[in-house]
Structure formats: C-alpha cells, structure tokens
Amino acid sequence: MENHTKEELQDPTMQVSSLNCIDLANDDLHHSACLDCGFFYVINHGITEEFMDDVFEQSKKFFALPLEEKMKVLRNEKHRGYTPVLDEILDPENQVNGDHKEGYYIGIEVPKDDPNYDKPFYGPNPWPDSDVLPQWRETMEKYHQEALRVSKDIGRLLALALDLDANYFDTPEMLGKPIATMRLLHYEGVSDPSKGIYACGAHTDYGMMTLLATDGVMGLQICKDKNAKPQKWEYVPAIKGAYIVNLGDMLERWSNGFFKSTLHRVLGNGQERYSIPFFVEPNHECLVECLPTCKSESNVPKYPAIKCSAYLTQRYKETHAELSIYNQEI
C-alpha cells in the first residue's frame, strides 16, 4: 500500500479492500483466484517499472498542455483522442454533471486502406504534434503493444478457469484481432458525493477485461456486491509494479455469470491522480453468447447473444457527450 495521506490512514471509516493476486511467473496458479470479485492484482507481467514511469511522465506532459492545444486532438466518432473534463457521465442517477477527469483514448492503429477501417472502433489515432511532445507517440504505441501482450496472458488463465482450452480466446474472431483501447486519465482531485460530484461515477466496465495502472494515489473504490442496499464501498490500494485487473460486463455475459463485473468509482481527495486503464474487447464481429462450458440443463443461458461492436457502441453512446456540443469551441 502506498501514497496514503495521513488523514486517510487515521480515518476509521475508510475500508480498504483485500484482493487476490495472480503471479504470471508461477506455473502452479489457482485459476479461480479472481472469483472473490471481478477485481484482482497481477504481478510479474514483464513490463518494467522504469518503462511504466516513462509512460506516466509522458501522460502528465500531455495533460499539462494548454486546453487549446489538447482540443486540437478532441476525440472523434471512433472514440480516439482527447476527452475534456465532464465529457463522460457514468452514473447519471447520482451525478449532477460529468466526471471530473480528462482523458485520451488510444486504440490499435488502423490505416485508411485497411479493410477494417470503417468499423466503429478501428481507425487511425489522432496524435499530439511531435514538435510539442517528441517521443510521445512512440512511447504510447509501445505501451499499447505490451499491455495487449499481458492481456492475452491473462486471457489464457481466464480460459482455463472456465474449463476451456488455454488458447480459446486467442483466435482472430476474439483476441487475435481485438478492440483494445488504452486511456490516459488525469483526475483533478475534485469530489463531493453529498452534492453528486465525483471524480468518476460508479459503473461497471463494458468489455471483457481492463488492466489498470495507477500512480499510487488513492481514489479507486469498489463495491463487491452491486445489489446490496446500502452499498459498501472499499478503497483499492495500489501495489508497486502490479496491475489491478477488472473483469467487465461482456465477460459476465460470456461466462453466464461465472465471472462477475464489479461496480467501481473514483473519489478525489484533493490530490491530482493519474491512471491508465487498458480496455480489452474481442473482434467487432465476435458474437458474445454463453460459452459451452458455462451452461447446462440446470444452468441455462441468462443473457441473449449480442455482437461485440453493437454492444460497445450502445454503451459508449449512453455514457459520452454528443460531439456536436464541442463544435462551437473548435
């Protein structure tokens, strides 16, 4: 645990969550380690702390730019690029306005002459001017490749936990040609839940899984039982060198509820906070329907089949502002 403020550690009401940890260097893995809830740690993933420090440093450089400069790479209809503060609202029932965070989406680079270019979550990334941020693009593209590699390693463990072949998800229809999107995030440190103001509103992630790297500043909270009344929120501490992995709604559907997506949010504590979630989804055309090992006569499929791109498009539309509101500002 690191970077807690003195006040936090003295606060008896601050519940800190205990999560399972998966060691990717250990062959004797307990494949059900993530069943306690949809969040767990992953260590020995092969990405060095030095490189992660560089990625975070480059992220901070972008967010330190003037707003005018950042708006030059405003997110497009493919959900690539800059998202201003309040652009996203994840918990409209409890939030008075959008999240108090800004972000930057980066996906797999797909050139215009690629046959997949017209698909909604593929396309070229807008990049900041290399004269303004030299080496920025190279750093982010390298990190994207590394995070995708780790995601596929975790995907093999998830397959084994579901009594599937280890490479079940690593096919062109699934993670062989995935929708994989990293998002740089900068939180202002603003929150007042009593007034409906959140750094990031309560939500479950849409997709298959999310790899989360943070700068260690406390803020992330999870609710292990999303149906409980009242909800019990626990802080998730960072572990140096470890990913926090979060299983999403799509995997809950796929596994017929065997894996659970977990409600989470971010509260600001007056400190700036930086994080980098890496969202992993299968191919656009992948039909997400109950896996063969997750159903039986007594355990029938709970969710209808749905195409991956249709599901994601709907979820993004529900949570992001219409791009037209920015037209007058550009």
If you had to describe this structure to a student in words, what would you say it looks like?
This protein has one domain (6-322): B-lactam Antibiotic, Isopenicillin N Synthase, Chain (Jelly Rolls). The chain has six helices and 14 strands. The chain has helices spanning 6-10, 49-63, 67-70, 136-161, 249-254, 308-319; strands at 21-23, 39-43, 81-83, 101-106, 179-187, 200-203, 209-214, 220-223, 234-235, 243-247, 263-266, 273-281, 287-288, 306-307. Strands 1-2-10-7-12-5-4-3 form an eight-stranded mixed β-sheet. The chain is globular, with a radius of gyration of 19 Å. The N and C termini lie far apart (42 Å). Keywords: Iron, Metal-binding, Oxidoreductase. It comes from Brassica rapa subsp. trilocularis. Residues 178-282 form the Fe2OG dioxygenase domain. InterPro entries: DIOX_N (IPR026992), IPNS-like_FE2OG_OXY (IPR044861), IPNS-like_sf (IPR027443), Oxoglu/Fe-dep_dioxygenase_dom (IPR005123).
Spell out the CATH superfamily. Answer: B-lactam Antibiotic, Isopenicillin N Synthase, Chain
Structural class: alpha+beta
Total domains, how many?
Answer: 1
Number of strands: 14
Order of helices and strands: HEEHHEEHEEEEEEHEEEEH
